[in-house]
Amino acid sequence: QVQVMESGGGLVQPGGSLGLSCTASGNIFKINVWNWYRRAPGKQRELVATISSINITSYRDSVKGRFTISRDNAKNTVYLQMNSLNPEDTAVYHCNAIGQMTSTLASFNAWGQGTQVTVSS
Q1: Contact (CB, 8 A) for 1 and 97
Q2: DSSP structure string for 52-99
Q3: In this predicted model, what pLDDT tens digit does every residue of 69-84 receive, in sequence order?
Q4: Which residue from 71, 37, 74 is spatially nearest to 56, judged by alpha carbons?
Q5: SS3 state of residue 4
Q6: How far is CA 97 from CA 1, 52, 66, 84, 112, in A?
Q7: pLDDT over 90 (residue 108)
Q8: CA 50 → CA 18, 42, 97, 118, 121, distances in Å?
Q9: What confidence tier does 103 reach under pLDDT thresholds 50, 70, 90?
């Protein structure tokens, strides 16, 4: 069993910055891919950023140059640094870890409960 939990959400003014983190725990052998998703009110969930096991990153166009995803493999943790936030970034942010469990090397695909990010003056 693998669990992930996000932290770091909150209220920030337009133009401000916020950092999110997400830590996985349980029978983890390796996390291959970390994803950050978000779901805004009344909208579909969208992929925000991805980081692979060799630190290859990708971002949706609307956050390129503003958001940075990074990972700490020793801590089974992923981060999302968000700068120059605007109201359109308001959403619940979820992290997603895809990897392999110890002992069996079976795959896992774990999701966090989400953390609210609100950008408002």
Answers
A1: no
A2: ETT--EEE-GGGTTTEEEEEEGGGTEEEEEE-S--GGG-EEEEEEEEE
A3: 999 999 999 999 999 9
A4: 71
A5: strand
A6: 12, 10, 22, 26, 9
A7: yes
A8: 18, 23, 10, 21, 29
A9: confident
